[in-house]
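Quick review question:
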């Protein structure tokens, strides 16, 4: 069964806690973003190593492998977009259709161990780029094609919700875990 595309505007997570995964992005300090990215990548290793990582738990819901492929690509995309924000004046990000990418790249057929490795590498690269942001760079703007404007800081807080929420989708563990 095909996955129903998610067409929600998730920018509301910048204004209030997510009732599903539990993350309150307004409480995320910009200095914590790199560590949160790396911790999330580490937490993905177990579900991607599970024997049933390729199995969809319900028709129409992604498997851990498919979610892991998506999170890997989110980390890669946000690294690219962060680079635009840091080097261009008020860039408009190119569109990205996450559902089209999942189908075209055959997320469900990829090797879970390789996705886990790539996810961790993409997270480390992105975390390093966020760790290098300083001073006025946190206020640099960037825009989605739908007109939503981010600063580097709000972009980082918006970003971190996605992988945390998807880890919740896979494990059912709300943030903060523990």
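Suggested answer, residue by residue:
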């Amino acid at each position: 069964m095909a996955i129903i595309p998610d067409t929600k505007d998730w920018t509301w997570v910048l204004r209030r806690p997510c009732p599903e995964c539990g993350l309150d992005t307004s409480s995320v300090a910009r200095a914590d973003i790199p560590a949160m990215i790396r911790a999330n990548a580490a937490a993905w290793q177990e579900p991607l190593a599970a024997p049933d990582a390729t199995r969809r738990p319900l028709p129409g819901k992604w498997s851990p492998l498919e979610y892991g492929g998506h999170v890997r690509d989110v980390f890669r995309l946000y690294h690219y977009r962060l680079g635009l924000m840091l080097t261009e004046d008020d860039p408009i990000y190119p569109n990205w259709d996450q559902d089209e990418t999942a189908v075209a790249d055959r997320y469900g057929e990829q090797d879970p161990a390789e996705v886990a490795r790539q996810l961790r590498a993409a997270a480390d690269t992105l975390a390093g780029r966020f760790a290098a942001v300083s001073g006025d760079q946190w206020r640099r703007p960037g825009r989605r094609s739908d007109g939503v404007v981010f600063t580097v800081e709000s972009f980082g807080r918006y970003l971190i919700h996605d992988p945390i929420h998807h880890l919740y989708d896979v494990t059912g563990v709300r943030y903060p875990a523990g």
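Why it works: Strands lie at 141-143, 149-151. The chain has a mean pLDDT of 94.
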